[in-house]
Amino acid sequence: xxxxxxxxxxxxxxxxxxxxxxxxxxxxxxxxxxxxxxxxxxxxxxxxxxxxxxxxxxxxxxxxxxxxxxxxxxxxxxxxxxxxxxxxxxxxxxxxxxxxxxxxxx
Length: 106
Known about the structure:
Elements: H1 4-72, H2 74-84, E1 92-97, E2 100-105
Antiparallel strand pairs: 1-2
């Protein structure tokens, strides 16, 4: 039979080993959890910034579409033609030279 003091020492050394293993596991899991939360928060902030950027771009796109529609209207084109002094071509003659052709109004 083993001495009671020896038994107590064995139990204590086994208990220390188990306590150390439990402590190490707890610390590792704690750091893993903190790292995961940090990564999730960082990703959330990045996604929010991208969503804001997308919203701003969509707003600019709509504004530019309205500007294009206004500038393409018949009244706008006619006004700009008159302002620039453009006239309708009557007789078109093409001058061909080399690899290109040029239209001349006569």
